[in-house]
Design brief:
heterodimer; A: 472 residues; mainly alpha; B: 961 residues
Chain lengths: 472, 961
């Protein structure tokens, strides 16, 4: 209760100075310890990106943040600009603050470094349920448990994550943040089957994956995971059915070379050598040539993040490149939630340019202008860096896919040899019957749809092949 | 993606080959495979390019594919190469024919070598070495291949596929080399996990390795496991091979029951399997194993047909391993089947071959006398050969006479003529039946010869006479017939069919008149028969026929015939003798002796027998006469045969107190045996000499002694004879020739100790007759004998020692006398001088006495001590009893006291000598006339002496001498 009152008072006090003028005064004073107040003033004026350098400077110069009001400022700012702007700060600086958002950032950094226990420490009991970062923190915590194969805890946290996320979603009005919350919630939903998958509980995972709504933003990418899960369940017809979903035009933006790999692998497991080989060959035909130019292209850009930023921007504006891989990759990035988060923040930042014009104090405007420029450049570079990383990842995925495809082909050839060496009858691919319902296996959560080559939105992901295994 | 997993899967195929090259679409498959391999190669190349050629695993895969393609191409090339006509193929270039495959092998090799060089730390190097190994194997570099497999194994990860495959490859190499210990170890390690379908096949080899190492139980257990897995379609089916070999394993392990259980459980016929195994082992050259398997297998036969099969298979094996008895048993079993008509033509031929071969072989061994030193084996062999011949006779009845003949020949060869004979007889019978003249003739001859050997009576009785008679009727003349006549004659004689024998004799005489010697032998046999029978009439009849020159006999035999007649006379006399009719016997012998018809031999024999008879009836006079007479008639050799009898004769004469006759007979026999080496010669000599001396016939003794050396008697006999002669001369006081004999004897040093005593006798005699000087000379000579005998360490007879002692004691007596002769007198100075002199004399006497005592003569010892005691005591007494004259009583008293003291040692010494003498007498059992001086103490102070009549014997209380 006492803490609540203090916070009210603080808010009242800050509101009393909430103006560019107040900000200027604080700035003029030159005492960086008061920068949080300055930031609070700018937040009031929705000058978030302009405020970022002040907060970073404060964090860099202060010894320890022991002020809840300051934490509130930090929380408010990060909520608006995203975590990326602060993630780039060294841990030593971030550790000065106990603000939940900073704790979350620290946890993310530790998680990336594989320091799971440390990450959990940063998160433990430090973020209140109402805190905007809470849903994301729970996703991170659940992921840590899942990665550490602590399934029960992971399930518990993911379930909590879903619940808290839904609470936040109900209250949230901002559409970008609403999308982020929904995506985060959905990742928490699939966190459960992912943890089960990691523990090879494929049957459980299979059912849990079905808890994700098809309308989810992340469903298309998760469908691929489901396909793998079916594969491990040796339900190759279902794997192929899920993979064929990606042929639907609505998923044309999906870039995942491994889809083809899994398809070839499924055919191979069904001993449908020719289908498997066809998939391999088709993949090579599709990607072999383009991959070379794609790789050359991205290599030529080096670390020019601006160019990367422009690539996606231009692509979303309808500019098509003469490289199918690049086009798909860029389309995929353009729909990537992480990219969208960065990009929406960046756009919000650009709104501040307009607001900047209303500042009468030229000196203040100049200072804020520099700040905004610095922040937006940083944001653009973050976007460019992310795009570059994704493109490099795609390039690596293609190479890996080539490798896998070749090995599949070699495996198919080996199996073919086995048959020849073991005097098994020579196959005639023409004679085999393709598809039979008797070869399917279903759970109570599934229902069977015949696939006639057309895609219906409500059928996506539920296609099942009925190919007979030709293994002998 | 599990790249490694896929790679391993691919890897496994490389070295598999078409498991059944016979399938119809092999060409199609090969083409298809080549296509797949090309695709694979392309894919690997594409992938390698995609990944920047930095992946050793891909290079390895490439090498594997290249090697695999090389192998396939090689198969194809080989097929084409073999399709070329042989003549053309010989001209063709083989390298060219295999050029393509070689190219791929080389490429594979290069790829691996580049891989190993470029990626020395490649964690799958084992796979690379494995390829090199297989490549080397393909181009027949076996040792290189083995090394690479070894290397692959060394660098392979524990439990990896390549490690196990390398082990398997090494195991196969060692298995094929016959190094089963190594193959066993490699297989064991490789087969711990059932990794692939080849497990059953490799386990099969492991099982054989165990088997070869004598680990039968493991071998069987592994086979069984492989057998069970063979039922699983995921494994190579080795069941046929296992069923075939397991029977053999069980057999070798002595687990026949388990074998039966196994085959029954699996619905197989044990016997059938073992028959198959046996045949298979034979084809593999494992004859010992085949024999064991078949021998055991026959025990499980289900019908006669199988028994036939087993036995036929076993024949050659039994022959190979020299199991003659088993071979024969098998032949016998087959012969039984033959009799039942159960053998087909081929089987009969096999049996015939075996029977004929074995019978011939054994017969040859017997003829070569290989087993002559192993009688039992030789006999068994002969029986076996016979059994084979009988089987062959069964198999070839039209020529069975030959088999019977050979059977006879076999027994003949080992000297079993009794066994040979019936076979020859049967051979003759069968020859007649089968009109086989040749065998008939051979068998007939062989039968004759066999019967001529030492066959049993029953055999002879059954076969001999008829055979001979039949032969002779067909062959009355000729050399062989001569032998047959003789045998037939012997046969009759043995059967005591004398008329038959006489008939043969006459036939022989008629057929072979010139064979006088044989006729004479036959005559002798017949006459011996009559002689034995005592059929004088028949004998006389034959003598007359000889005398009438009906038979021409040798002069020697003619004499013998006469002797034979004479002998018949003796026989009568001897009969009388044995019946106790001694007079009758004597009469008979006298008749023979006196008969003008009697020859010297008969007379001699008669004379001897007469002597014996007289000895037996105790007529010593006649004995003496006939003994001398018969001895005179005998040759030295004859006499030596009967010399013991003559000793008895002479002894008998002596015992009957016919001393002269006894000595005379002994001397006569001695004279006759003089130059012979008779051992009893010395007996005759001694007996004669002793008796002559006893009879005081010194001249005869002297004559006899003179002959002794000439007749070869040694000094060990002659010298004692002379000594006896000498002693008897002394006893008879015949001294005339005494010294001469001593002189003659002293030439021999060994006689010196013996001559001391006789010399003393002679010296005493000379002294008695007053020839003291001569006596002294003799005594000096006697001392010479004594001294030198001592030096030469000869044993001196006791009487000799006594003689010397007595001689020296006589001198000692003189000293003793001298000691007492000088009397003590006063004055004091004179007294002292005399006394001193006396002590000095006593010392001298003591020394001499001790010296005499030490000689060893009992008489000498006791007398010497008596003189010692007497000397000491007499001096003591003389000193004590001496009283100086003209002296005061005080002086005298003082003088006596001092003198008593002075002679005390003399008393003590005398007492000691006395005690020593007594001890010696008792301890050394000395019997001397002086003993009484020491031992007897009586009131009369004299010593009693005992005398007996001459010739009487002194006896102790018990009556013994």
């Amino acid at each position: 209760m006492k803490l609540y009152l203090t916070m009210i008072l603080l808010a009242f006090g800050m509101n009393a100075n909430a103006s560019f003028q107040g900000a200027w005064k604080i700035y003029q004073n030159g005492d960086k310890s008061h920068y949080p107040k300055l930031v609070a003033e700018l937040i009031k004026e929705k000058m978030y990106f302009s405020a970022i350098p002040f907060l970073k400077e404060y964090l860099a110069t202060t010894n320890k943040v022991n002020d809840a009001a300051v934490d509130k400022v930090v929380e408010e700012l990060i909520t608006e600009v995203g975590v990326k702007q602060f993630e780039v700060l060294p841990t030593s600086i971030l550790e000065k603050s106990n603000a939940p958002a900073i704790r979350y950032i620290l946890a993310r950094k530790a998680f990336r470094q594989g320091k799971y226990d440390q990450a959990l420490k940063f998160l433990h009991n430090s973020i209140a349920d109402w805190n905007p970062v809470k849903p994301f923190a729970l996703l991170l915590e659940g992921s840590i448990f899942a990665v550490s194969k602590r399934e029960e805890q992971a399930n518990q946290v993911f379930k909590e994550c879903v619940e808290i996320s839904n609470n936040h979603i109900k209250k949230e009005k901002d559409k970008d943040r609403l999308r982020q919350l929904k995506i985060s919630r959905d990742y928490c939903i699939v966190g459960i089957p992912r943890a089960q998958f990691a523990l090879q509980k494929f049957d459980d995972a299979y059912s849990s994956y079905l808890d994700l709504e098809k309308s989810s933003y992340i469903w298309p990418e998760i469908l691929f995971e489901e396909a793998w899960n079916s594969f491990y369940l040796k339900d190759y017809n279902r794997t192929l059915g899920k993979l064929v979903t990606y042929k639907a035009p609505v998923f044309s933006y999906i870039f995942n070379p491994e889809i083809e790999v899994l398809k070839a692998l499924s055919y191979m497991e069904l001993c449908l050598w020719q289908d498997s080989k066809n998939t391999v060959e088709a993949f090579y035909t599709t990607y072999e040539k383009d991959n070379i130019s794609f790789k050359k292209y991205i290599d030529s850009m080096g670390k020019d993040y601006k160019q990367y930023y422009s690539l996606v921007k231009e692509q979303s504006e309808g500019k098509i490149k003469n490289n199918a891989i690049l086009n798909t990759a860029l389309a995929s990035i353009a729909r990537d939630p992480a990219y969208l988060e960065l990009y929406s923040s960046f756009n919000a930042g650009r709104d501040e340019i307009e607001r900047m014009k209303s500042i009468e104090n030229e000196k203040l405007r100049a200072v804020l202008n520099d700040n905004l420029k610095e922040s937006l450049n940083m944001q653009r570079n973050l976007i460019g860096s992310y795009i570059r990383g994704q493109l490099q990842l795609f390039a690596a995925q293609i190479v890996r896919a080539f490798e896998d495809m070749s090995y599949i082909n070699l495996e198919v050839l080996s199996k073919r040899k086995t048959e020849l060496y073991e005097n098994l009858p020579v196959r005639s691919d023409d004679l085999r019957s393709r598809g039979n319902l008797a070869h399917l296996r279903r759970t109570d959560k599934q229902y069977f749809w015949t696939f006639n080559g057309e895609f219906w939105a409500d059928e996506l992901g539920d296609y099942v092949f009925s190919l007979k295994s030709e293994c002998r | 993606m599990k790249r490694k997993y896929i790679l391993i899967l691919c890897f496994g195929f490389i070295f598999n080959t078409f498991s059944n090259s016979a399938f119809a679409d092999v060409e199609q498959r090969r083409t298809e495979l080549l296509k797949v391999l090309d695709e694979e190669l392309r894919e690997v190349t594409r992938l390698n390019k995609q990944l920047g050629a930095q992946r050793p695993d891909l290079m390895l895969r490439m090498a594997q594919v290249l090697l695999e393609k090389g192998r396939l191409l090689k198969d194809l090339e080989n097929q084409k190469y073999l399709e070329i006509a042989a003549t053309e193929r010989a001209k063709s270039n083989k390298d060219e024919a295999f050029r393509e495959s070689r190219r791929y092998f080389d490429q594979a090799q290069k790829t691996v070598l580049v891989l190993l060089k470029k990626f020395p730390r490649f964690d799958e190097k084992a796979d690379a070495y494995y390829i090199l190994a297989y490549n080397a194997k393909e181009i027949k570099q076996d040792e290189q291949s083995r090394k690479f497999f070894q290397k692959a194994l060394e660098v392979a990860k524990s439990g990896s596929v390549v490690a196990d495959k390398s082990r398997i490859a090494l195991a196969e190499i060692y298995f094929n080399k016959g190094s089963f210990d190594k193959s066993m170890n490699y297989y064991e390690a490789a087969l711990k996990t059932k990794r692939d379908k080849w497990w059953t096949k490799d386990a099969f080899n492991l099982s054989w390795s165990y088997f070869k190492m004598g680990k039968y139980d493991k071998a069987i257990a592994t086979m069984l496991e492989s057998y069970e897995l063979s039922k699983n379609p995921k494994f190579i089916d080795m069941s046929k091979s296992i069923e075939r070999d397991l029977a053999f394993f069980y057999t070798e392990a002595g687990r026949s029951d388990d074998a039966i259980a196994f085959y029954k459980k699996n619905g197989k016929s044990v016997s059938e399997v073992m028959l198959k195994v046996g045949r298979y082992l034979k084809t593999q050259g494992k004859f010992a194993a085949a024999e064991k398997t078949l021998s055991d297998g026959i025990g499980f036969k289900q019908n006669e047909k199988e028994e036939i099969d087993f036995n036929l298979e076993l024949l050659s094996l039994y022959e190979k391993f020299g199991r003659d008895q088993k071979h024969l048993e098998a032949c016998k079993a087959l012969a039984i089947q033959f009799s039942k008509g159960a053998l087909n033509a081929d089987q009969v031929e096999v049996l015939k071959y075996n029977v004929q071969k074995m019978s011939a072989l054994i017969q040859q061994q017997l003829v070569d006398k290989i087993y002559d030193h192993q009688g039992e084996i030789r006999d068994q062999k002969a029986d076996s050969a016979n059994a084979y011949f009988m089987i062959n006779a069964l198999l070839n009845p039209a020529k069975s006479e030959d088999d019977y003949f050979h059977a006879g020949e076999t027994y003949f060869a080992i000297g079993k003529f009794d066994k040979a004979v019936p076979f020859y007889a049967e051979a003759i019978k069968r020859s007649v039946k089968n009109s086989n003249k040749k065998t008939e003739s051979l068998a007939s001859n062989a039968l004759m010869v066999s019967l001529g050997k030492s066959v049993k009576k029953t055999t002879s009785e059954e076969y001999l006479i008829p055979a001979y008679e039949s032969y002779l009727s067909a062959n009355p003349k000729g050399e062989k017939s001569s032998v047959v006549y003789q045998r037939l004659f012997s046969a009759y004689m043995e059967k005591k069919n004398i008329p038959g024998a006489e008939k043969v004799l006459m036939s022989y005489k008629s057929a072979l008149p010139a064979e006088n010697e044989t006729q004479e032998k036959m005559l002798a046999s017949v006459m011996d028969y009559y002689k034995d029978k005592g059929d004088k009439a028949a004998l006389t009849s034959w003598v007359n026929r000889i005398d009438s020159n009906e038979f021409k006999v040798s002069p020697g035999y003619a004499t013998k015939v006469k002797t034979l007649v004479l002998g018949m006379q003796f026989e009568k006399v001897e009969l009388a003798s044995t019946k106790g009719d001694k007079k009758g016997a004597l009469r008979g012998y006298l008749q023979i002796y006196k008969s003008p018809e009697s020859n010297a031999e008969a007379k001699k024999t008669s004379a001897y027998n007469i002597a014996v008879l007289f000895y037996e009836i105790g007529d010593y006079k006649q004995l003496y006469a006939w003994a001398n007479r018969s001895a005179a008639m005998m040759s030295v050799t004859d006499l030596m045969k009967f010399e013991k009898d003559y000793i008895i004769f002479s002894t008998d004469l002596f015992q009957r107190r016919q001393f002269t006759e006894s000595a005379s007979l002994s001397e006569n026999i001695f004279d006759k045996l003089c130059t012979s080496d008779s051992k009893n010669k010395r007996v005759f000599f001694k007996n004669a000499n002793v008796i002559y001396l006893a009879e005081r016939q010194f001249d005869k003794s002297k004559n006899l002694l003179a002959k002794a050396t000439k007749c070869g008697l040694g000094s060990d006999i002659t010298l004692p004879g002379y000594l006896d002669h000498l002693n008897e001369l002394a006893a008879a006081s015949k001294w005339s020739s005494f010294n001469d004999i001593i002189h003659m004897l002293e030439i021999s040093k060994e006689m010196w100790p013996q001559l001391i005593y006789p010399s003393s006798l002679l010296a005493n005699e000379l002294e008695n007759i007053g020839r003291g000087d001569d006596a002294n000379k003799i005594r000096n000579r006697m001392m010479f004998y004594y001294d030198n005998s001592k030096k030469l360490k000869y044993d001196i007879p006791l009487e000799g020692l006594d003689s010397i002692s007595l001689f020296r004691l006589s001198a000692l007596d003189g000293q003793l006398k001298k000691l007492s002769q000088t009397k003590l007198v006063f004055p004091e100075a004179e007294y002292n001088k005399i006394l001193k002199n006396k002590f000095s004399q006593l010392d001298k006497l003591t020394s001499e006495a001790v010296s005499i005592a030490e000689m060893g003569s009992g008489i000498g010892i006791v007398k010497a001590y008596r003189d010692l005691v007497t000397g000491h005591e007499s001096l003591r007494d003389e000193v004590i009893n001496f009283t100086p004259e003209g002296k005061s009583p005080e002086y005298i008293s003082s003088f006596k006291k001092s003198m008593e003291k002075l002679v005390e040692p003399l008393s003590r010494q005398a007492r000691d000598f006395r005690e020593t003498a007594i001890k010696k007498i008792e301890k050394e059992n000395i019997l001397s006339t002086d003993n009484g001086w020491f031992l007897i103490k009586n009131e009369y102070s004299f010593i009693p002496e005992f005398y007996s009549d001459s010739g009487a014997a002194l006896m102790d209380k018990a009556g013994a001498k």
